[in-house]
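Researcher: Good morning. I'm working through a list of sequences from a screen, and I'd like to move beyond sequence-only analysis. For each chain I'm collecting a predicted structure so we can compare shapes side by side. This is the next one on the list. No need for commentary yet; just the structure.
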Amino acid sequence: MHVIAVGKAYDPDVHDWPEGCHYNFDQSGHWLTYFYRNPTPSEITSIQSGPAQFGIFVHDPVIFLLHQFGDMPWNDAPYSWRLVSAERRTLPETGQGLHGFLKVALVDTSSGLVAALRALTFSVEFTDRLHGEIQRQTVSPWDPDTHDRVIKRIYERFTTEHLVRYAEILCKGGE
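Model: Good morning. Structure tokens for this chain:
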């Protein structure tokens, strides 16, 4: 089992990471990974200890997890349950009054090393909404071309700040 730790390789078998943000929910839970080339000290501090905010914007069949840490601008990461490999897929618990537990990593794409790690929770209401949206994806019709078109259309029409304004729910990290 590979352990993710600051200063260690995020994945020793991968040496080239595209920049961006990636959200995933699978058997290991909720993960948000920032892939930045040469992250600044401010970005590292923001991820490690800055105030965190989250939002959900849904445009079927895609969930956009909106997120902001410290002084960093809002960012988004599209998610679709069907894109998770079949052996890693799992259904989230719903209606349990749970706080979703999110693990966050900042990976320096120039080296492949983890620059920052953090764990925090979503509010109960946010978790219920996010888990409910993931559950809905599992029973909705799936077409990869539609999925890709939706993401392309959203990015052509809206900035992340627009998505935050249209978010269905927002919460602060640690609620």
